[in-house]
Description:
There is one protein chain. Helices cover 53% and strands 16% of the residues. By secondary structure, the protein is of the alpha+beta class. Helix 12 packs antiparallel against helix 13 (391-422). The radius of gyration is 35 Å and the shape is elongated.
Amino acid sequence: MKMSNLLSIALKNLRRHRKHHIQVFFGVFLSVFCIMTVVLYSMFLNKHINTTIPDNLNCYLTYHSDDTSNNYKEECESATDIKGVGAVLGLTDISLYSMNMNSNNNMPYDFTFDNEILNISGKQYSYSHSDMLQDEYRLFSGIELFRINPDIFDLSDYLNLYYNEAFLYGSTGLNDGDVIIPEQYLILYGIPESEYESFIGKSLSIELKFPKNYTATPEYRICGIIKQECYNSFPVSLIVSSDMTDSSTYSLTYVYFENFENDLFNSAKKELDQIFNNKGNICSDYENIITLHKQIGFANHVLLIIVLILSMSFLLHLIIYLFFYINRNEMYMALLLSLGMNSKNITMLNVIEITMNSLFSSICGVLCSYLLSFNIDKYINSDKMVIIWDAKLLLIALLITVPVVIILMALISGCYVYRQCRYMSPEQLFNK
Length: 432
């Protein structure tokens, strides 16, 4: 029999046995919908992680301490031995407020950018840019100072880990009284880049406009000017040596990783938290990534098992129903055999019917699961939605899912129909 004739009969059967095919539709649809919702959501999250995280993005943990007398030397030495850790850096905050507390009224002076002057070898530079740039560079309201102990921490370990050329001019050779300047401060104070190189070796101090010519810091010697992108992973600040002042308020220990691997990162964090007896804060760039990895883990290990059980129950119910329907429809098959149609044609007719039904239901299942993934993301990650329309991913899901479902349903149904027709005569089917 011609394929066109079989197709015509199949379409008539679909219309005539609507109730049967609606049940088949929902059985396939629910199975595909449940599984693909979890699979697509995990695929979306993995794609977002792989495409949004550059290979050179800094990954680190921060340990905060109010005990500035503890330099964590032993802890930092232990931290460097942990797999995946590339560098450890300790910074201690130097508070200009504490350093310049007015003994008469017990109130600090104004240390905002507008009141601060950069004095470089007697030449004064005043704040000249908008608060917009200040926000862009993630700066506080005034110049920050952090000290580092070169005997314990080497700033170049961190810089070499992530940057090929960190300095515009100068180097990390911090000695007593030296200071490293971030490029951001020079930009905010309207200093032209043509002057940068001449600053190396010159003196720097911070003065206040009010009270007039008041010097708020010791006099430092400029040893380096560092590029602005090198401050992505610790506070934008002047970096000074360890013995300049005791006016510290807190300390920060940064533990940097060579690269981000979720399992390795989680394992290392547990060890580091024990070493520092504190819970490390994950860098903001990776905090969302950690959350997404947790969602992927939950989806793959918990939700997928649940939906697989549900889908298997749907499929089992569907298969039982198909066998029941085929057995009930044996008179129709006997009629076709008596009219001269062979078992192969009858099997092909059944396969065409189930293929058309499975095609439509599986496509609907994938599309609905795709749309549900957006709503799940909107509900869970409302502040940082990560799923975006991806026609390529949808196409891949359709090209994989639809053929698998069609082949599975066609094999189950077709094999059973062929068995019934192959080994029975029309008389046996009528009698049965």
